[in-house]
Design brief:
Blueprint (H helix, E strand, L loop, with lengths): L1 H25 L5 H16 L1 H13 L6 H30 L3 H16 L2 H19 L1 H27 L5
Helix pairs in contact: 1-2, 1-3, 1-4, 3-4, 3-7, 4-7, 5-6
Length: 170
């Protein structure tokens, strides 16, 4: 079981890193909303290794049998590896690769708000945006947010995969 988790967790982590780096590189000229969609799609694609990892364990290592509980555990541990690596990658990206990302991101949304919101609502939203900017400028919070995002999506995929792939002995 350990080898399956490490193998598929590593493949998921590598995939999420490659897709994220490609998305960040190619998405420089895209709107942030489109970049977010591409980012979430990349996360889901990378976390499909959860399904394949559980299936591999069931079919190749466990004689075609896996309980819901064990399948869920395998999936969650694969998701944990991918989430940790992606959290680290995001921290490295913001610290070294694109240190202006947070400023650019929030400047973009501030401009959007100024163009679309009435003055009364604008001041409230700008205050919210500024407090968010302070939170996400903290490397730990940035890591935690990315880790949690990937892990929650991974948990959902693990749950669905465990339900689909569970097989009891006959």
């Amino acid at each position: 079981m350990k080898n399956t988790i490490i193998r598929f967790g590593s493949q998921s982590a590598l995939t999420i890193c490659i897709l994220s780096l490609v998305g960040w590189y190619l998405g420089k000229n895209l709107d942030y909303s489109i970049q977010e969609v591409i980012g979430y799609a990349g996360i889901i694609v990378a976390l499909l290794f959860i399904f394949f990892g559980i299936k591999h364990f069931r079919d190749k290592e466990n004689n075609g049998i896996v309980s819901f509980k064990k399948a869920l555990l395998i999936g969650v541990l694969i998701a944990l590896i991918a989430a940790l690596i992606f959290g680290l990658l995001d921290t490295i990206y913001i610290k070294y690769i694109n240190p202006d990302f947070i400023t650019e991101y929030y400047t973009h949304y501030e401009e959007q708000m100024r163009n679309t919101l009435p003055e009364a609502e604008l001041q409230t939203k700008l205050a919210e945006l500024e407090s968010q900017k302070k939170i996400f400028s903290n490397r730990f919070m940035s890591f935690f947010l990315m880790f949690t995002t990937v892990f929650i999506i991974g948990f959902i995929i693990s749950l669905i995969s465990a339900l689909i792939l569970q097989r009891k002995p006959i």
